[in-house]
Amino acid sequence: MFKKLFTAAGVLFLLAGTPLLAMAETPLTGPRIENFLDTWSPLQQLGEKYSLDFQNSPPPEVNQENGFNPFLSSLNILKGHQAYGEFMSILKGAGFSSPEEWATTANRVMRAYMASSFDAGEHSMSSIEIKDAIKQVQENPHISDVQKQAIINNLKNSVAAVNSMKNVSQDDLNAVKPYLGKIEETISEESK
Questions:
Q1: pLDDT at residue 22, rounded to an integer
Q2: What is the domain count for the chain?
Q3: CA-closest candidate to residue 36, choices 117, 118, 112
Q4: Residue pair 18/74 in contact by the 8 Å Cβ criterion
Q5: Whole domain around residue 37: which residue ranges?
Q6: How distant, in Å, are the alpha carbons of 77, 99, 166 from that of 71?
Q7: Which residues 6+ apart lie within 8 Å of 169 measured at CB?
Q8: Which residues make Cβ contacts (< 8 Å) with residue 57, sequence separation at least 6?
Q9: How far apart are CA 104 and CA 83, in angstroms?
Q10: Which one of 45, 69, 127, 136 has the largest count of C-beta atoms within 10 Å of its C-beta?
Q11: Alpha carbon distance 65, 164 (integer Å)
């Protein structure tokens, strides 16, 4: 469950940015980053115990008002699920006062981590390229209308996420920098 969420979130963060999180009230600190990393393995184990399907859930929307926030979006799936109590215990054990605090921290850590090794300029598309890609999808007779809409929505979300990568705060980048190796090691554990 969480393995799929973290994998999907990691891939999406490669393309993501969140203006909302760039303006977060509290500074991202080393202890807070450590707290988030401390939840990674227990949440993956919890995911193996229960079956929540984040991979087939609708992707989090990217918009100017709310930015891109897959960890916070995933909380809606967890609320009311039998795993929620154990999920909360893991978060509280790691020092988080609420699931929203954990999700905000998770988004900021992963965003800064991905922005540290991501050149948005290499991956951004011009508006002409976007319009051309959308037109090609719309004109493809081999794709159903539902598939077309999903592809177009994903394309728009990906482009918005890449374009907003520029909004990662320098403070978050600086906070995450000493932890880049540990973050990489932690998120790589899922493939073992």
A1: 41
A2: 1
A3: 112
A4: no
A5: 2-191
A6: 10, 9, 20
A7: 22, 23, 24, 112
A8: 74, 77
A9: 20
A10: 69
A11: 12
Residue with tokens 């969140």: 18
Q: What's the pLDDT score for residue 153?
A: 82
pTM of this prediction?
Answer: 0.68
Residue 128 tokens read as: 């002409």
Residues 32 and 94: their CA atoms lie apart, in Å, by 9
State which H helix or E strand residue 68 sits in.
none
pLDDT in tens, the chain (192 residues): 444 444 444 444 443 444 343 444 589 999 999 999 999 999 888 888 877 655 555 555 554 444 556 788 788 778 888 889 999 999 999 999 999 999 999 989 988 888 887 655 555 556 677 778 888 999 999 999 999 988 888 887 766 666 556 678 899 999 999 999 999 999 887 655
Distance, CA of 103 to CA of 75 (rounded, Å): 8
Helix (H) / strand (E) containing 187: helix 180-188
Q: Give me the torsion for CA of 180, 36, 42, 80, rounded to 10°.
A: -140
